[in-house]
From TrEMBL:
It catalyses: ATP + protein L-histidine = ADP + protein N-phospho-L-histidine. GO terms for molecular function: phosphoprotein phosphatase activity; phosphorelay sensor kinase activity. SUPFAM superfamilies: ATPase domain of HSP90 chaperone/DNA topoisomerase II/histidine kinase. Residues 126-354 form the Histidine kinase domain. GO terms for biological process: cellular response to phosphate starvation. Its EC number is 2.7.13.3. This is histidine kinase. The lineage of its organism: Bacteria, Bacillati, Bacillota, Clostridia, Lachnospirales.
Amino acid sequence: MKFWSYLKDRGVSMGLQLLACLLVLLFMYAFAVPMSLVAVSVGIIFSFTLLSWILDYLKRRTFYRELTGVMEQLGEKYLVSEMVEKPDFYEGEMLWDVLYTTNKSMLENITEREMKTREFTDYVEAWIHEVKIPLASLNLMCRDLDRKYIRQLDRIDRQLDQILYYIRSGNAEKDYLIRRVSLAETVKNVALKNKDDLLERGITLEVNLESDTVMTDGKWLEFMLNQIINNSVKYMKREIDGKSGEMMEHESGKLPVEPGKTPGEEPRIRVTSGRAENGVFLRVWDNGIGIPAEDLPMVCRKTFTGQNGRRGAKSTGMGLYIVKSLCNKLGHRLDISSRQGEFTSVTIIFGENDFYFGGMHSDGNISGNLSEM
């Protein structure tokens, strides 16, 4: 608060005070009060009036400076009343009370909405688990029937998993355990889940893991890898031709891009892992239809299906969005490169940092708040 702004705001009251002082002096002069007494009276009145103005200004300036400073630095502006002390002048008290009441009302509304959202997500999670029980029974009952029934049940199961992990991605702290996870075991489990689709489409799955263990959540990694391989299977084509790849720049270092397709090459998915400059990478490469260049920056956006999704593949646009969200929660990075008609490469980079290796328990596990990662 600038002094001139204060004078402008208090100008009327100050003018009236000065006018009152002047009238007192005139009355004293009219009643023949000695000039020495008038001078002393003028000095006392003016000194105390000026002092009251200065003290009032300093008090207001302190409060408003603190208020504006907190507002500039605070991310959650609605918490300003919690960070600023209640002032001892009337206008400031009124402002503080308004801010406090507004903040209290909003927090109550947020808490109520969060409770309703939590109740809904808990219900959906419970419902999904209940649906999975008869689904698993149906899967067993249909083993001797046509494989197409099994595939439809598997599709339902994958969609249920997608919903489940989408919900959990918003409440990550409820369901995660960071530990050393075997990439070989994870790839094996995902390959078994997709065995029927791979065999039916004649897709060769190649696995070459130079680095076998990473620090992550095993369940989440398995889900993410399953989503990526599902996409590779979904957007695979049988007759292919193409070119070779190149080096891909990434913030974790240079990662070699898998080569493209050659005429007559059979459909294949290649899962590889290795060392990056700042950690370990796990890559899923396929020689499918690829992603158009204009769609590539948006493939991880929520509900984005792109040209490939609109050409007949039944896409919800949620798979890579959930994978990206889970990677962010776990402190990993996701990189996607592609060339339309040639290949698609999806890479998860597991960074190595002090949180993972400094906070690890003796059993190789880590617990903590994902929001700190």
